[in-house]
Amino acid sequence: MLRGRLGLETARIPHADRHGLLWLSRGQLSVTEGTLQFCASGNGELAAGMYDIPYQGVSLLLLGPGVSLTHDVFRLCARHGTGLAAVGDDGTRLYTAPPRGPDHSAMARRQAILWADPDSRLSTAIAMYAIRLGEAPPRGDIAALRGIEGARMREMYKLLARQYGIPWEGRRYDRNSPEETNAVNMSVNHAAVATRAAAEIAVAATATIPQLGFIHEDSSLSFALDIADLFRDEFTLPVAFGGYKRCLEDESLVLEREVRKLAGATMRRNGLIPSMIERIKELFGADDRGGDT
Predict the structure, then answer these.
(1) Where residue 138 sits, what CATH number does that domain have?
(2) Paired residues of 31 in beta bridges
(3) Angle at alpha carbon of residue 261, lines to 213 and 244, rounded to 5°
(4) CB within 8 A of 11, min separation 6: which ones?
(5) Is 253 helix (H, G, I), strand (E, B) or coil?
(6) To pair with 271 at 20 to 30 A between CA atoms, which of 81, 140, 203, 232?
(7) What residues are designated binding site for Mn(2+)?
(8) Residue 204 and residue 60: Cα distance in Å, rounded?
């Protein structure tokens, strides 16, 4: 009965041959005669009108503020392995994103294998630290590597603060009393939240396991936090200090809003989420056709 109306008989395209992410905001997503269509109300990036969505050529649809959708959309996308994620503006928040399913498990299986063996788990952590440090760190336990990275980050904070002309007295953040954090540290927190959201989207898009981190351990988002930290120097801190400086120059601006806007614009312009997805694939040496590269 559903054949034709929802196009469920059409063969699926491997995710390795798809184009990754498609961003939609402010409009209605529905299915007409087996075709996914988006009626855009009009915004800065997409003019008002009706658009056919090539759902079989996309891995993940990111649904931003103002998007409504019909039940048929879920059924069509589920059948063709196209993910749906509800996100904030420009992907600076992730609200929900279900896994893609059992036929896209190659990278998750590779992740689990690397995580389960102590030697390969440490090797993967070292590879992540090498990315963050720009060179291979001396082999050691995780605590020693964290100490090396922590010392480097303290210098990075000072360097970037000088570049942006911002007074910096050190990273200060009390999780139990976040409201007592000073403004520049709060700006770092806001930027980190946006980076984490992007990493969560990348993890969802690759169907990897967020709980199995190689550096972070206790959080249900440990692997997403691992990936977010890989982009701290090039994304999180420049956004944090840039947003804070804007607020210093214009006291009418609201810090969280300004950092979030800057994060979203930078994320889209620099292709942060696709970069994270590629980094995950590189770490695990696996593609999504079901085999190792």
Answers:
(1) 1.20.120.920
(2) 36
(3) 85
(4) none
(5) coil
(6) 81
(7) 149, 216, 229
(8) 9
Inter-CA distances, 9 with 4, 55, 80, Å = 7, 14, 10
Which residues does 135 contact at the CB level (< 8 Å), separation at least 6? none
Q: Determine the residue type at 279.
A: R
Q: Is residue 92 part of a domain?
A: no
Q: What domain count does the chain have?
A: 2
Q: What distance in Å separates the CA atoms of residue 263 and residue 275, rounded to the nearest whole number?
A: 15
Confidence at 9, pLDDT banded by 50, 70, 90? very low
The order of strands in the sheet holding 21-24 is 21-24, 60-63, 83-87, 94-96
- Looking up tokens 């896994």 gives 99
Task: Report which of residues 130 and 18 the model is more confident about.
Answer: 130
- Report the C-alpha gap between 170 and 237 in whole angstroms: 13
Q: What length is written for the chain? A: 293
Q: Is the pLDDT of residue 99 over 80?
A: no
Q: Residues marked as binding?
A: 149, 216, 229
The alpha carbon of 119 is separated from its chain's Cα centroid by a whole number of angstroms, namely 27
Helix locations, the chain, DSSP H = 71-79, 106-116, 118-133, 142-164, 183-206, 222-229, 237-249, 255-270, 272-284
Q: What is the pTM of this model?
A: 0.78
Are 70 and 167 in the same domain? no
d(CA 111, CA 222): 13
